[in-house]
Design a protein that fits this description.
CATH class of the domain at 6-64: Alpha Beta
Number of helices: 1
CATH architecture of the domain at 6-64: 3-Layer(aba) Sandwich
Low-confidence stretches: none
Strand order of the largest sheet: 1-2-5
Mean pLDDT: 80
Strand content: 15-25%
Order of helices and strands: EEEEEH
Shape: globular
Structural class: mainly beta
Helix content: under 10%
Bound molecules: FE2/S2 (inorganic) cluster
């Protein structure tokens, strides 16, 4: 069974990635591995576009007042288990 990876769009902030994941540059060089970004076991990826440390969040979303809306055009229905309709 493959390791579980979860990506959570945080409220008004970055995408939080948890699980055994490697983040790579197009060249294939490893940018970050699980838990490496901040020691919490999660990697936080910018989704506001304002980070000066892309692809990571550097909290610039706070400075620019980034607002996300749950249920926007990119959202899908809530996770209800594998195979749920
Ligand atoms: S989401 Fe935090 S800097 Fe973009």
């Amino acid at each position: 069974m493959p390791a579980s990876i979860q990506i959570t769009a945080t409220a008004d902030g970055p995408n939080m990635v948890t699980g055994a994941v490697e983040l790579l540059w197009p060249s294939g060089h490893v940018i970050s591995q699980e838990g490496e970004a901040d020691g919490s076991g999660a990697i936080f990826l910018c989704r506001c576009g304002a980070s000066n440390n892309k692809p990571f969040c550097d909290n610039s979303h706070l400075r620019i007042g980034f607002k996300s809306t749950e249920g926007d055009a990119t959202a899908t229905k809530p996770k209800q288990g594998l195979g749920a309709a």
